[in-house]
Amino acid sequence: MASHSEVCCAGGACCVALASFGTAGDADLLAAYLDRYLRRPDLAYDQPTAMGALAYTDSVLHGDRASHFLQEGGLWRQWFQNAPHMHGDDGISTYLGDIRLACAVIDECADT
Length: 112
Known about the structure:
There is one protein chain. The protein is about 65% helix and about 0% strand. It is an all-alpha fold. The chain is globular and about 45 Å long.
């Protein structure tokens, strides 16, 4: 099995790819990842990127998979509050903006 350092950034890239594909199945994969890893505030993996990707996918699909993570007392807020490596606002606008930008670059590259 590969160590975390051997696969650095792979999770973030997968989140961007899933957001770029933007299907209901991709949203389900992101939600399943978040359901598992937002329960682990001791792990600093790709939770913020996955949360941004899920919110982006929801905006494309007009879905609401992210809402139960984001609600008051939801797993995102609990994880953010308890994760020692997270600081500042527990909003997702920065993460959502990063995913929007990455998907725009992918779309532009696909058009050329």
